[in-house]
Write a structure and sequence with these properties.
Blueprint (H helix, E strand, L loop, with lengths): L17 H4 L9 H8 L7 H10 L7 E6 L21 E6 L2 E10 L11 H30 L12 E3 L4 E4 L7 H11 L6 E6 H17 L10 E6 L8 E9 L3 E6 L2 H5 L1 E2 L7 E6 L7 E11 L10 E16 L11 E6 L6
Parallel strand pairs: 5-14, 6-7
Antiparallel strand pairs: 1-2, 3-13, 4-5, 6-8, 8-14, 9-13, 10-11, 11-12, 12-13
Length: 350
């Protein structure tokens, strides 16, 4: 455990202001998490969501989501008095919950030796920093999840091209100013209409910002392309080889995230100084809307060598959450509402 030796008053010292502390606690933009959480209850109804807590009682319990599937075509070319057809079907998918967490420790007396910081300040910054780390971990996981769960099938686009090996809709560099229009057309050709959500890397997000300003800046109005695309900028999404911009696009309401924490944390139980420790929950201080499970347990310790005291108490803390990504189920093999798109590198010809 770190010992805060640098903040002991062996010289004239002051603590930095809150604003000056911000660079140390900066974190990456949670574009994918924001996009998944923005869909709210569009994938699973509030009533069904309440059942998750009653069905999933432990980390090991599973949850299934059901859907009525599209019937296969059963066409006729003439009327008949006898016309029995298929009765349709349903399908189900299991929600795959992952557990992610962070842990840290502090001691009850680590601020007693004339420290610049109070114990509350130290613990609150520990909590804030580790929650930020946890959110960063989830963002990385769900960015990879988008790639794993992107559609592997597509209608043949009339403009641009479909990479059937990498499963990417390709927009030629010459059409860079029309990238978002090309993507909307591609989605229409896959029979998706209406509002779209897009997780775009910095190259494409900056292109979107540029296009939005063109009407006001020089009367070349290209911002209309973005009127029905909700943008989520990702600093973590890298370009694949051969591309100068990458994005994932999907219709609003077709992907989401289901969070879960144990019932003992939702209800609150115990005491950190009692056998078994304290279980409780806290809302995300960064405002994502997630609620985290917290477990604290105390043990006696000699921290004299680490800026505590000989008779001290260590508090071990774990912050955790279970989350399950949800995407619209489709009976077509390898089909998904998530499409990966890319703006290709310009081709230089001799």
């Amino acid at each position: 455990m770190a010992n805060y030796a640098d903040s002991r008053r062996n010289a004239l010292q002051y603590a930095m202001s809150t604003l000056m502390n911000l660079p140390e606690f900066k974190r990456k933009a949670p574009a994918v998490l924001q996009m998944l959480l923005a869909n709210g209850q569009t994938l699973i109804s509030g009533k069904e969501r309440q059942l998750i807590d009653s069905v999933k009682m432990s980390d090991q319990d599973t949850v299934e989501v059901n859907i009525l599937t599209k019937p296969a075509s059963n066409a006729v070319t003439a009327r008949s008095y006898s016309h029995a057809g298929n009765k349709g079907d349903s399908d189900k998918a299991t929600l795959s919950f992952i557990t992610r967490g962070e842990k840290f420790s502090y001691s009850m007396k680590m601020a007693d030796r004339d420290s610049v910081f109070s114990l509350d300040e130290m613990v609150s910054k520990l909590m804030l920093g580790h929650i930020g780390n946890l959110l960063d971990t989830l963002e990385t996981y769900y960015l990879a999840w988008l790639n794993t769960n992107k559609s592997q099938v597509s209608a043949t686009p009339s403009l641009g091209a479909w990479d059937a090996a990498g499963y990417i809709y390709q927009v030629e560099n010459v059409d860079a100013d029309l990238f978002f229009q090309r993507v909307k057309g591609f989605m229409r050709e896959n029979y998706y209409k209406g509002m779209l959500q897009m997780v775009a890397n910095e190259a494409l997000y900056q292109k979107a910002e540029y296009l939005l300003m063109q009407g006001a800046g020089n009367n070349t109005n290209l911002g209309w392309q973005l009127s029905d695309i909700a943008q989520y900028p990702s600093t973590e999404l890298a370009n694949d080889s051969g591309y100068v911009g990458m994005a994932y696009v999907m219709p609003v309401g077709t992907v989401g995230l289901e969070p879960w924490i144990p019932g003992i944390n939702r209800q609150g139980f115990g005491d950190k100084f009692s056998n078994g420790g304290l279980y409780y929950s806290i809302p995300d201080p960064f405002g994502s809307g997630l609620t985290f499970a917290v477990h604290e347990v105390a043990s006696g310790a000699d921290n004299n060598a680490t800026s505590g005291e000989t008779q001290d108490i260590n508090i071990d803390v774990e912050i955790s959450i279970d989350t399950a990504p949800v995407k619209a189920i489709q009976s077509t093999a390898s089909a998904s509402p998530i499409f990966k798109t890319g703006l290709q590198t310009a081709v230089v010809t001799a």
